[in-house]
Each structure stands twice: as structure tokens, then as C-alpha cells.
Queue: 2 jobs
Job 1
Amino acid sequence: MVVNVEELKAEWLPPKDFTLSEEGHDLSLADEVRKILGGERIDLCFRCGTCTAGCTTGDRLTEYNPRVIINMAKEGMWNELAELGDVIWQCVSCNKCVQHCPKDARPADIVRAVWTVIRHRLPQETEHNPRLVLEGLYMGQIAEKGRVDETKLARDFYGKMGRRLTLDDMMFGIKKVGLTRLIRTSKAPNWDKVKPTVKKLIEERGK
Amino acid sequence: MMELIYYPGCSLKTGLAQNYDKSVRVVAEALGVELHELDGGGSCCGANEAFSIGEDVSLYLATHILATAERTDLKEMTIPCSGCFMALVRANALFAEDPSKLVKMNGLLTDGLKYSGDMVVEHLIETLHNRVGVDRVRERVKRPLSGLELATSYGCMYLRPAIYTHSGENGKDNPENPLFMDELLGAAGAEVLGIDKFPAKTDCCGGTFALANETLSYRMCSEILLKAKEAGADMLAIGCPLCGAALDLRQPAIAKQYGDRVSLPVVYFTQLLGLAFGHSVDELGLKFNVSSPVDLLRGKSL
């Protein structure tokens, strides 16, 4: 039998309207995620959904779906990712996904790397994000004193978010006043020697 | 006398969990453990916040603490805060995984500090269970916690993820059904609910969102409190100041939203051990628990 190779080749050509699923996608997105520490494991994910099955936030907020978020990053679905808005920031860091992921892809770390990309790409939209506002105040306290004061953190955070203090919020202050009679110090020892390096690393964050 | 480095962290040293710190010191002394507090309490571990903004910041803060600890001649440290515990075991694990990270961090340390990567980092629950032992706890009991039904909440970072905490490995607690705190409190005479009766023992309290997303945090706390109460618990025992901030300190606000069915005294496990060793409510800082355990304890004649 003589096989016409040319004919076979023609058989395997894709139909004319064939398009790859990633058409129109932003393929630089996954590259950006990969470059951020934690994000380099994104290629280990095979979208099994174990992360989502045990997700603490997802159980209570169905829109939060780490499997979908990681898939969007892998596929370069930037518009869809940006449209998730506040939802994407709702991970509580319970690490159940990292514990259970069969590929050790560390899903929570990938989501964190996606956050860094979003922060870089959408600096204005993320400026008032409660999570990032709190993080900024927290890191500010560490840089200055090497210690975190939860009472001051609560006060500053509510002030920045324009949230009115309730009587229950005052518990922070009341408890602190009672407790500071036991011990009183505020700055970490020898912090001035460490401070410049910490400040520099915070400024370089996520780069 | 057993000697260990003690790293209390911000919440226990100067923050809202000084009642936990007080009880840790009382219990350690009663059990013959000498705690050498790290250099004036040490500096902040960076917790999840530093890890979220960048691995380098997080690793640097952790390395600074570990290198300071290594300046003493002790090789083991014990940590009562799950957040601090996680920051330090994660640093150790990431250094073992990629030694170049340790080289980089050592290059950034000042003041002649250097870290080898070898400090043994333990959570206080594990130290008391494995080093001191349940038998020693039983021997020290003067006032058994009889008639006290407890639920135990281990939270997240003492257990997960195992790639950092090594939970589930030989001699470590089980990440899916932890028992160390249960056994310590059981030795003190309390009845502790098993995971079949209280399946929320490894659930997250949402402590990270106690300020930034109260809706989610309160919801998660309410579920843990409700499940514990429905299972018949008189109290919820915890071993983490972040759980304390969420489940105890915010309980008035949670109860306002979810009703009295979620009102349940929340106490640090060391406060309960201290009581069993014969110490007073004042010595253990129990008056500073917002969820009012004192009335309940009086009712049980403890």
C-alpha cells in the first residue's frame, strides 16, 4: 500500500475557524506571577480543586474560589481577574489549601503572588482596600518600633477607614489599660540598628 | 531544671494577650521549666502581614529573632503564639529548602549577628506535651478540673501547613485531629470533647480579619463558638493570642450579632493548667478575659 503523506497531513490541519482557547488572553500575567516568590509554583497546579473544596473563605463566600483565581492567572484572564474586585482579597490564611494540595503548589502563596501583580497593575484601585490599609499600618509600626500595638492598630485602622467606633471596639482600649499595669515596654530592644534594613525591605516589597 | 528560650511575641509581651503570658510563666515554673526570655522580649516576627507583602521582609524579621536567640548557648526555643511560631518555622523550612535564602539573610543582618539555620523552634503546646510530658502535669495537679467540659480550638498555624510545622511527622501533633492540648488538659482533670463531638477544633477563627473584615471573622468565630456550645462545652480552650483577639476580645460584638447562643468563655490552655496547679484567678490573668470565665469557674468551685 502506498500512503499519500501529503493527504494525511491535510487531514490533520485544524478547521478554518479554529482558535486556541487563550486567544485574547494576557499571557504575560502568569509570567509576572511566576517571578514573585510563592508564584513560581503556579505551574504545579493541575486545577483539581482540592484548595477550593476545603477553603475556609469559600465555604462562607462562594464568589471566593482559589481554583478559579489560579486558573485565571494561569490562562492570562486578566479582565476576569480584575473584575473579581474585593473578593480576591478575602483569603484568611488558614492554610488548609497549602496543607491539602496534592501537588504542593501552595495555592495560598500563589494567590498572594496574584495580589502583588494586582497591586502593581492597579495601584489606585487597591489604595483603599481594607486588607492593604491594615497591612500598611502594621508594617509601619514594625518599621518604627519593631513591635505591633494592637490597640493603636485598631484605632488607626478605624480612623483611616472612616468607621465609627462602637462600645465593643472600646474593649481593645479597656483591655489594654487593664493589662499594661502588668508590663510596660513599647519598642523592641536595639531596634535602631535593625530599622534601616527593615525599612528598605518594605520599600522594595513585592519587587 | 529544663531551660528553654522563650519568645513571647508582641501580643504577649506588650499587647492584648498579657494574660496568656502571665499564665505561661506560672505554669512553666510549676512544671520546672526555666524560660529565658529572648532579649527583652525580642522584636516582631512580621506575622502574616510581612509574608503577604514579600518573602524577604518576612524572612529578615524572622532571621533577626533566630540569630538573636542563637547568641545564647541554648538550642531550643518555645513560642506561645501560633503566628510567631509560624513565622519562625517557615523561615527554618524555607532555609532548608533553599540555603541561598539563608545566605542572603545573613548578609543583611547587622550587629555581628549570624544565623546557622539550626535553632529548634517549638510551639508551647508541643513543648509542654513532649518535653515536660503529660505525667508531670498530672503529678502537679492540686485542684483537678473535674466537672469541667472543654472544647479545644487549635486554630491554624500551630498545625498548618505541615511543610513548615512538620505536623503529622513522628512525635508531632496530628494536623487533622490534634490531641496534645486535649491530653494536657485531660491530665489536669478536665473532660475534653473529641473531634467526633467537636469537629471545629482545627477551624480558623478568622483572626487575620478581626479588624479588616469583621463580617467574615465574626461569622467564623460564631460557628466555632456555637459548635462548641452545642456539643456541651463549658469553655473553649485556645493556644494562640490571635484566636484570643478574635474569639474572646471580640465576643461581645459577635454575640450582639449572633445572640447569646454563641456566648462561651474562652481561655488560654495555660490559664486552665495554672488553675489545676492551685494558682489563683489573679495570678493567671483570668480577669482580663473578656468572655467572663471567672463566673463560670466560681460556679464550678474552681
Job 2
Amino acid sequence: MKKIEAIIKPFKLDEVKDALNDMGIKGMTISEVKGYGRQKGHKEIYRGAEYIVDFIPKVKIEIIVEAAMVEAVVNRIRETANTGKIGDGKIFVLPVEEVIRVRTGETGKEAI
Amino acid sequence: MVDVELRAKRDALEYLWRQGLSGQTLLHRHSQLIDDYLVSCFSNCPEAGEGISLVALGGYGRKELFPYSDIDLLLLHTPEAENRLGAVSQALFYPLWDAGLEVGHGVRTPDACLADARQDFFFQVALLDARHLAGSPQLFTTMHQAFHRELIAGHRRDFLQNMMQHRNERHQRYGRHSYQLEPHIKESRGGFRDIQAMLWVSHALFGLQEMDNIEEAGLISIQEKETFIQARDFLIKIRNRLHYLSGRKNDQLFFEYQEEMAKAFRYSDTQGTLGVERFMQDIYRHLQTIATTTDLFFAHVDETLGSPRANQIEQTLEPGITVRQERIHLTDQALIEKRPHLLMRLFAQAGKTGLEIHHRSRKTVTANLHLVDDRLRHSKRMAKAFLDILENAKDVLAVLSVMLDTGLLTAYLPEFTPIHALAQHDVYHVFTVDRHLLQTVAELKKLSLSKTPFAGVESPHVLALAALLHDIGKGHHEEHARRGGELAAGIARRLGLTEAETSCLSFLVEKHLFLSVTALRRDLEDEAFLRQCAEQIQSPERLAMLYLLSIADAKATGPTAWSEWKGALLLEISLKIAHLLERQDLVLPDKSQGAGWMLEQVRALLGKETPVDYGILPEEYLLSFPPAEVAHHLKLRLGLKNENQAIIEAADHPLFWSVLIITHDSTGLLAKICGTLALHGLNVVRAQIFTWEDGTVVDELNVRPAAEQTYAEQDWRALGEDLNLALKNRLGLSHRLVDKFRTALRTPSQKNVQTAPRVVIDNKSSEQYTIIEVFAHDRPGLLYEITRTLADFEINIHRARISSDGDQVVDVFYTLDGFATKINSPTFQEEISNALLHIAESETGTGAKLQW
């Protein structure tokens, strides 16, 4: 089992979610995150006043899938979240030791 | 085995409840059942003889025992009976515990009772409801009389103050967000504790025990009593069911129970509203009834009994409205009938002075609502007072809340009626729709006082009205924003707003979700889309209003609706649209307004002594810097002596370093700058390039060091010297760059090539400039070569945006050709494109200069 974490642009969330649903992935954890990466923040000036936003708003999607599905899922996220511009995001794949469903105690594949 | 019997009896009671036994009858039956049981236990206990008395306290004492409420008991005893207490409490309390009941118990002598009651206000209040159950009656009577004699009589004012203080603290504690969504029908504002607080005070202070007595004594009116009893009876039924449904002592109407309860009370879904929403609407209305009635009751009693306020002098604010003891009063019923707009003036005065409206005047308002007819709703005086409140009231939330509670707001704006106390069944909207609207007005007020972008709009009254009305279309099956826009337009006309104001208001209400939704769902890099937004919004003023409304709305929705994260997105889209609205692409009537204002600021900063020709400053330049920086640039400019000199200033910022360069325009200037910066190990991440009418160039570049080094370690002096050499054409940038990056360039790129380099020449997006976009893989010196190539074509770069993310760069140049016109010729475009692609595709830089 693997955990896939994708950091994407906020407006791409719905598309990525739909794409994953189409692949049969229904469960995911979604959070609003702040990126402090290479892209960094920016200073804006409007009517003589400066506004600095020191982070870039991003959305993080976390899903657990069987190892066999990783490639397909990653590709799907890449295709969907790609705009060709800076800040499209990153995808991480991490090993997962065990998954346990709290209510039933099921483990492994059944608990995903 | 007694507990089995008790259990069976309580099961039987639940059965009766299911058969329809409800309300107060159930509470009495339950109390009776426990009474019978305890009395029989007590009489069967041989030790429970002389000197011991069993007393019921609290809700049980009042015979108001809800299905799972605590059973509060007091075992009163003489000191002599102490050795028998163990056996008695074992016989009484153990079976109750075994039956799963929650028992609050105390074992005290009469003296200890009084001592404890002096210390603990809650116990003191519990003793008010004390009821003798079994055992020695004298013991009970002695304690009870001593309690009233020593703790209540002569301490009436303290009792009242204590009660009011606890009530306020409780309202604060249970007024938090989570309790708005899932009201606690015992402790929340308007819950059972408020009912009880009123009854306790009536009992302790005036010896009045029933609602009828309280009304007869003139403490509340007949109408108040009737709606109050209605509300109380409704809440009793709710609480009974809630206990049975939860199977425990639970008084909070959690989300999961709301739907089930709504169904049980036969609230079904209709078009546009859910049954559960109308059910909750009734709950909120009843809680509000109790809250308002008890507020007025306490205000009245406090005035009658409380310490007299210092300022006894009466001050007339206007005919019919006075201030007395720091409360605002309506004084003349006849005048109200003659000039009914006084009702609104009362609130305007409250807003202006920040003082509360006296409780009797609040009742006067409610009693005179029939005067608010269609004519008054069209009255200019009414509208003026009303808009004045929205815009200027010191505590606008407090004033509007009282206006809502008295019924004046819904009478004046009948469109408010369907959303009054309307709940939205989700975890997102914490307040009912009406409260949310009032809250939005208050949040808006806070924003206007803070340092928010776009603060300070020209028609604050229109914006405040939009805040108050933005959700007015809810509770209907149509799309609420559109319906709201129509309703708002009607209200605006009735209030006598101008056509322009009306259309602005209607626009704001209809589009109040536009920015928040768009910021989350659309690509903020999509220029074409942003342009559409700008066309829809039309003016910077409207954008500012929409921006402020979006924030106030989100903040007033609940703790999850607003975050710094959303704020960043909202600011980004708004600034992007603002720049489009203010700058070249959309021709707007007030386009130069911003620049004119900037000029005034700069003039004021520099004073008359500095000889400056302000005409040379282009508008776009003026809108890109704070006034102080413009003034600074102008001063630096005075120091420029000859043609090929440059003044350089660097500054440290948390995210980047900025380099300001002031010099005279010359061909290939940007290339020389970029080349020199690259030579000194600095990557350009953004460039703003401005040329004044007199040929002065002001470039502001944001740079980051290629290597790990601090701002202080960077040799800025050497950079300045090299740049001045380069400007005098005394520095061979090309070969120096090759030398510097020899090792870096020899190493072939390890990165996966994902997108081929691309050059886009765009004449559509900007009316004034040809936009050249270069997408390429980054390498040292790339920007130098691109800009140098453009210089070779005699192309002038007026603005540039350089973004790099690792090995990818997107460079956007706003350009004009050597004749200061757009690059229109297709063959020339192709030539430029090919030249740039050649550079972008090369892994090691242009072959001609790299012969190794």
C-alpha cells in the first residue's frame, strides 16, 4: 500500500477529485495548505499601498491506494492538475505500513 | 430488587410518552413517580426516624423532572442523627444509582445548609426550590424559614446582581459558535435557565411563584406572558424528546438529532426549505422570545431595585427622545402617532450615542408596529435615519439586534420576514440567516476601520445595505443571489436611493459570491478570464465593494468560512482584476483618477523646492509605486549627471532582494543589466521597467542569489561599478558570462525535458504592447541572451515579468518595435520567434559565442 500526497493549485481540486472518482477512488483527505517553496510569495502594489502575501495557497490531497494502482493514479493526477505554468504542484508517494478501519478493526486492503 | 421496580416504572413512563403523554404533564408524572418511590424507601428504612428529613431540590424540587435530569436530594439532619446517616443514604441513594439515575445528593445539618448557601450561589438558588419529601417536617421548616430570613430577605439587591452576573456569564459561555449551530436548550440564551432565572428572581424578590402572578404584578405584559408560555411549552416537549432520543441527560440539540426531531414533530420538506430548517427556525424563534422577555424583565427589575445611576439629569436629544440614566427613552406616545418615524430615530440616536434603549421604550416600539405601514416604508425621514444607522452607528450589531428583536426591522423591511431565525442545515453557516446578515454589517464596519486593501469606498451606505441584504433571497427554491438582487433593487427604490446606487446595490447582492467562488475555482493566471471578470465588475469602486463584502460575508458565516488561506486567494484575484480595471486594457472613464491622486501625494512629499516636471511621469509608472518611492526616484534622478551613468540601490526583503536602477534609456539596456546581475550571481525573478517621457529609465528588479549567501555578503559596490562599465560599453559581458558558467554549462541537464521551449507573440491581450512570452529551461545567462537578442532587433522592453520555478522559466515582455509601434509584420514576428527559440533550445548558450 502506498500513500499518495498531491499538492495542487486550488482551482484544480474539483477536476482532480472527479478524475479520481472516475478511477474508483472515493475516499480522500483534502486540506488547505500554505506553500512556502521556490515560487514563494509576492508583493503587490495597489493605489500606492503595498500588500505582501508570503505564502501561496495550495490544496493537499491524500489518498491510500494499493501499490499496483500508484502509477495510474499519479499519472491521472499529473494530467489533470497540469496547466503548464509555474506552481502546478508536486506529488509524493510514500510507503504505508498498515491501514486499520477504526469502526470494524479491518486491516489492509479491506480498510482502504 | 427495588431498583428493578423503579426501572419498570420509568419504562412505563416512556411508554406513556410514546403514546402521547407530553409536556409538563410528563414532568409532573415523572416527579410523582420518583416521589412515591423515595417516600416508600424512606418509610421502610428503620434508621430514618427522628431528626432526619428528605428534601427535593432544583428542578426536581419544582416537580419539573425531565426524563434523564439529575435528581437533586438533600438529607437534612440534626447533629444527633449523624450516626444513622450511613444506613439511610445507603437505603435511599444506592437503588437510584443502580437504576442508572443521576443523583445529586447532599447530607447537611440546617446550619451547614445556610453556611454553604452563603458561599455557593448555585446551592442558594437550589434551596429556593426546596420541597419536603419525607421525614421530620419541623426540621425542614426551620431550615427553610432561616434560609429566607437570613439569606434572601434584606439581600434582594445582592441576589439580583448575582443572578444577572451569572446569566451574563452563561450567555457568553453558551453563545459561542458551536452552540449557535447546535443550541443548548438548557443553558443557551433563551433556554430553560433563563426561564428559571426569571422565576427565581420573582420568587426571591417579590414572592411571586407563577407566571400569572408575575403578569398580574405588572412585571410582564399579557402578550409577553402568552408567547412566553407558548415558547416554554414548546421547549419542554423538545427537551423531553431529546432526553429519550439521546438516552441520557443531553440538552444540546446536536446536528444528528435535529433531522430526527423535525420528522417526529412533523416538519416536512417543502420547495426551497427543508423540514429540519423550519423546525430549527421555530426553535430559534422560541429561544429568542424567551431571551427578549427575560432581558426586558431583568432590565425592569434592575431599574426598580438596582442602585440608582449617577446621572439623574434628563437630556432631550430631539423632540420625543430623551436620555435619562444613560438609557434612551421615547417619551411621547402622541408624538409617535403623529410622527411615526420617531421609532427609527430612536435607534439612530442609540447608534449615535452608543447608549442602550430603555426597556420600556423597546416595548413601546413593539406596541407601535402597526404604525409602520406602506407610507412609512417609503418615508425619506425613515430611510435617512435607517441608512445613518447602517453607516455610522457606534455599535451597529447591538442597534440592529434590538431593532430585530423589537420587530421594527421586519416591519420596515418585510422582505426580512421569511429569513427571520431561518437556519441553514449545514456545519458551515453558524448563525441563522437574519443574525448572519446583521453580523455581516458589523464585520464590514470592522473592516472599514482596519488597514484592509480596498478600504474606503465612496458610497459606504450602499455597501452597508448590501451587507444587510445579501442573503435576503434565501429560504426560497430559486437561486438566492439572483432573487436577492431583485428584492434589493425594490428595497433600494423604496428607500429613495438613486438609480446608480440601486443598480450598484442590486449588482453587489446578486454577485456577492462571485469573488469567493471564482478565487477558488478558476485559474488566476488565465488573463482572458480575468479580463471577463473586469468587464463584468466594470469599475474599481465596485470591485472594492465586492471585495469587502466577500470578506465580511465569510467572516460572519462561521469559523471555517474564513481563513488566511482564502484571504490570500481572494486578494490575489481582486488585485489582478483591479490592475486590469485601472490600467491600459480596459478604457474606463475614471482611469486617470488613481494617477492624479498619486501625483498630489508625491507633490506634497517633495514640496515646492524640488524642481520637478511632473508631466514626464507616465500613468502606469505612477500606479506601480507608493508615493514615497516615486518621490525618492525623482530625487535620485536629480543626481544623474551624464548619459551613461546609473544609480543603483539594493534593499533586503524577506522573500527577495530588490535592486533599483535609475539611468538613461539606451539600446540593450535591460540586457546589460541582466548580464551584469548574472555575472554577480543574481537571478532576476521579476522586473518592472518604466521609461519616463524625458528618457529616464526606472527599473525595479527582484533578484535572488544563485548561491547560498546573505544580503550582507553580496558585493553591491562591485556590482555598481560593473554596471556602469557595461553601460559605457566597457565590459565584455558575453565572454565573462561564458567563463563564469563554464562548469555549470558543461554539465548536461539531468532534468527530464517535459515541455519543449516555446515562444508566443501576442498582439491581442494588450492594446498598447506586443507581448512576447518565452517558455524555456533555465540556465545561467539565459535572460541576458534573450534580452540581448531583443535589443539586436531594436525592440524596446517596457515591462517584464520573469518567473522561474527550478529549471522552468516563463519570461513575459511587453514590447514595442524601434518605431514605438506594435510588432505587426508576420515575417518579423517569425524572425524574432526563431531567434529566441534558438537561444531557448540551446542547452549551453548561443553557439556563436561558445566555441569550446
